[in-house]
């Protein structure tokens, strides 16, 4: 036997007998109801403010109140609670107007057998909406964190579509290349490459990262960039491709390695000097050994003791 579903109900109804019939119908179909009946605007608003309800059942017409007003007040408070109108015989126009106004559904009092299925469906839809909102909020949080990283990154981060048109250009890209995001959005990213073999270079980079259509990450290459002022500079590109709604995009994280190259060149020059010094020092040591041997030889010819061991 299934465990009863706990259901907290706010019932807008002036006839206690009708409420008892509605609750009996729900409890006969697997619900365990905790409910409060109200029949005035003031009591309804007080109930909304004082309790948390899973569902609202409301008659369409009451002596001092009506269901569509109750629905409007609920929407004004931005409370996402399923709202089901329960009324006597009404026409198609009532049904259409109530649903347009924001009601979840409606049930005729003479057809209360529909009440439990309608409530089940309303609760399922509410759960789906809450789950969708939760996922959407997670996505907004992830996107906000991503944007914060992109906006504050020291490296240039550029995203293009499959044709190479810029979709995203972060502040670091502005500093590295000299173009503003507004200047580059919708413009071919090849403007950041030197004019010589520009297209071929871009195609080779795209082929490297796409891997023949397979999604790849972490491909890093060294290349040459072109600033807005026409100067070239060495750069490292970390490349990735990804898809969104079957559209392929490319993202490059670009680091200006001018200082690194200067340090590498300085180190290369120092190594060359050290090698030359070592060669000179080795040459001097060999000549010193030869001179000592020559002196020892001359001393022996003169009958003297060799001074060097």
TrEMBL record:
Keyword Mitochondrion: no
PAS domain segment(s): 142-212
Keywords linked to the UniProt accession: Phosphoprotein
A Pfam family of this chain: Response_reg
Residue positions where 4-aspartylphosphate is found in the record: 59
Positions of the Response regulatory domain: 8-124
Domain PAC span(s) in chain numbering: 219-269
Name of the protein: PAS domain S-box protein
Phylogenetic placement of the source organism: Bacteria, Pseudomonadati, Kiritimatiellota, Kiritimatiellia, Kiritimatiellales
């Amino acid at each position: 036997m299934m465990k009863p579903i706990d259901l907290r109900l706010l019932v807008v109804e002036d006839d206690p007998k009708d409420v008892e019939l509605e609750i009996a119908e729900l409890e006969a179909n697997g619900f365990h109801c905790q409910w409060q009946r109200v029949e005035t605007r003031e009591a309804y608003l007080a109930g909304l403010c004082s309790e948390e309800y899973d569902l609202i059942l409301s008659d369409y017409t009451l002596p001092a109140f009506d269901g569509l007003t109750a629905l409007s007040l609920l929407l004004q408070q931005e409370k996402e609670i399923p709202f089901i109108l329960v009324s006597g015989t009404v026409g198609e126009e009532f049904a259409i107007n109530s649903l347009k106004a924001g009601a979840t559904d409606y049930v005729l009092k003479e057809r209360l057998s529909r009440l439990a299925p309608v409530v089940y469906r309303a609760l399922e839809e509410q759960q789906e909406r809450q789950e969708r909102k939760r996922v959407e909020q997670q996505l907004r949080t992830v996107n906000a964190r991503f944007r914060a990283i992109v906006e504050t990154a020291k490296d240039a981060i550029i995203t293009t579509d499959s044709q190479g048109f810029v979709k995203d250009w972060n502040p670091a890209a502005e500093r590295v290349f000299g173009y503003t995001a507004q200047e580059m959005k919708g413009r071919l990213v090849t403007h950041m490459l030197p004019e010589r073999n520009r297209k071929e270079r871009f195609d080779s980079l795209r082929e490297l990262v796409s891997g023949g259509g397979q999604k790849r990450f972490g491909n890093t290459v060294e290349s040459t960039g072109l600033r807005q002022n026409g100067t070239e500079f060495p750069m490292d590109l970390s490349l990735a491709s990804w898809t969104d709604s079957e559209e392929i995009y490319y993202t490059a994280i670009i680091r200006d390695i001018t200082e690194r190259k200067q340090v590498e060149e300085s180190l290369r020059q120092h190594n060359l000097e050290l090698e030359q010094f070592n060669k000179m020092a080795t040459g001097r040591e060999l000549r010193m050994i030869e001179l000592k041997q020559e002196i020892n030889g001359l001393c022996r010819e003169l009958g003297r003791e060799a001074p060097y061991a």
